[in-house]
Amino acid sequence: MAVDLSPPPLEQTNAAEPTAGAEPPFGPSLTADEASLLPTKLRWTLVAWFRLAGDHALAGEILDGLEERSGETAQALEERARLALVEGRADAARTLWEARVDRNPSPSARAGLARFLLELGDPAAAADLAAELCRDAPELATVGALAADVARASGDLATAEAHYEGVLAEKGETPTALLALGRLAILDGRPVEAAALLDRALAAGAASGAQLGAAAALADLCDRPTLAGSLRLRLVRTEA
Q1: In this structure, is the dihedral angle defined by the CA atoms of residues 208, 213, 214 and 216, taken in order, positive or negative?
Q2: How much of the chain is in helix, strand and coil states, percent to nearest 5?
Q3: C-alpha to C-alpha distances, 119 to 77, 90, 122, nearest whole angstrom
Q4: Cα gap 182→196, rounded to integer Å
């Protein structure tokens, strides 16, 4: 079965934006049975797509099919946690993420849990985990970025901004740092600067799954839904 995932050109303006509550102008459209015929990697991407698009039931059905084949993997636990969070089941989401970390308590998994705790609105617990990671694995860039995000969540925007400005000074136009600075600009009430940072990140070659997802989220915050949708479609194609 052929699934058309061809993205439209990236839009840099707000021309012809859809109205609130309208159906997305583009994106994959298929049933769980049709999804079961697709490659496994693409099915995982579709779970995330439909979760972000608000079709939680279809995301769950596709995830059920993946688990029937592969069992309850760490990836499945993470996706179950994200799905539970967007469905408003915060306690279940936390339990699932903690189970994922118990299965493989690597620094990256613990950092993922800390970020999830930030999403759950528990910056104190996230700060405790970040402090542990700063002691255990201070050399990891992920840990430094986590510490900056914890500072941001605690209202210390200056510390967070200083971290990412330092990354730019050391490594040049880094998409991840530019996108993080864009989020901080939004929080600080600077939407025009945030949009400019988003454009810089795209010009710098934001292309990984994480970068495209972050760019799409920032585009939403900058009131550029067409660009956000196009970026999410690129994400689907990138991970297909």
Answers
A1: positive
A2: 70, 0, 30
A3: 16, 10, 8
A4: 8
**Distance between CA 53 and CA 210 in Å, rounded?**
17
The amino acid that residue 25 corresponds to is P
User: What pLDDT, in 10s, does the model give residues 135-179?
Assistant: 888 778 888 888 888 998 888 999 999 989 998 998 899 999 999
Question: What are the residues whose beta carbons fall under 8 Å from the beta carbon of 90, sequence distance 6 or more?
Answer: 84, 120
pLDDT digits (tens, 9 = 90+) for 8-46: 444 433 333 333 334 444 567 789 999 999 999 889 989
- Closest by CA to 114, choosing from 225, 100, 194, is 100
Residue 113, CB-side half-sphere exposure with 13 Å CA sphere = 25
* Contact criterion met (CB below 8 Å) for 132 and 167: no
